[in-house]
Design brief:
Elements lengths: L2 H20 L4 H12 L5 H10 L6 E3 H6 L2 E3 L6 E11 L16 E14 L3 E3 L15 H11 L6
Antiparallel strand pairs: 1-4, 2-5, 3-4
Helix pairs in contact: 1-3
Length: 158
C-alpha cells in the first residue's frame, strides 16, 4: 500500500463512518470506539487503517519495538500499513512576533507522511507479554457499595 492508497482508504473509512452516523447506525461507531481503545497511541486515521486491514488486532507495534520486547514477527506475516509523519527540525533564525531575540531551540516542521508497517501481537512469537493482574472471586458485600456509588453519579444501572 502506498501513501495515496493509505490516504484514500482512511478517507473512505471516515466517509463510511459519517454516513453510518447520519443513518442512525451506532454499530459502526461502537466498532470504531472499540478500535480506538486498543490503539491509544495511534491517530484517528491510523486506527481506521488498522481496523480495516486487521479488525481483530489488539496490540500493535513496529518490527523494532517487537524485538525490544523479545518477540519476533512470524515468517510470512504481512504488515499493517499506517501513515507516519515525516518531521524535520528547523533552526529558529527569525525574530519572534513580540520583538524578542530568537531562541536557539529548533522547531519541528511536518514535511509529509510515509507508509510504515506495524504488526499485531498475534503475528509475533516470543516472550510472553506482561498482562494486567486479573482478579477472581465474589465481590460479596462490596457489590452494594459499588452499586450505590454508580447510582449516586446519576448512572442508570441494569
Amino acid at each position: 500500500m502506498n501513501r495515496e492508497e493509505a490516504l484514500k482508504a482512511s478517507d473512505d473509512a471516515l466517509k463510511e463512518l459519517a454516513q453510518a452516523l447520519k443513518e442512525g447506525k451506532s454499530e459502526t461507531l461502537v466498532k470504531y470506539l472499540d478500535t480506538m481503545s486498543r490503539f491509544h497511541r495511534y491517530s484517528f486515521g491510523n486506527c481506521i487503517l488498522i481496523a480495516m486491514q486487521k479488525p481483530d488486532a489488539t496490540i500493535v507495534a513496529g518490527f523494532g519495538r517487537w524485538k525490544e520486547l523479545h518477540r519476533w514477527v512470524k515468517k510470512g506475516e504481512k504488515g499493517i500499513a499506517i501513515l507516519a509523519p515525516m518531521v524535520s527540525r528547523k533552526k529558529a533564525d527569525q525574530d519572534t512576533e513580540d520583538g524578542q531575540e530568537p531562541q536557539d531551540q529548533p522547531t519541528a516542521v511536518l514535511r509529509g507522511f510515509r507508509v510504515v508497517y506495524v504488526f499485531d501481537v498475534s503475528q509475533t512469537e516470543g516472550r510472553q507479554l506482561e498482562s494486567l493482574r486479573h482478579f477472581e472471586g465474589e465481590p460479596g458485600e462490596k457489590i452494594a457499595c459499588i452499586e450505590q456509588v454508580i447510582r449516586s453519579k446519576g448512572i442508570e444501572l441494569e
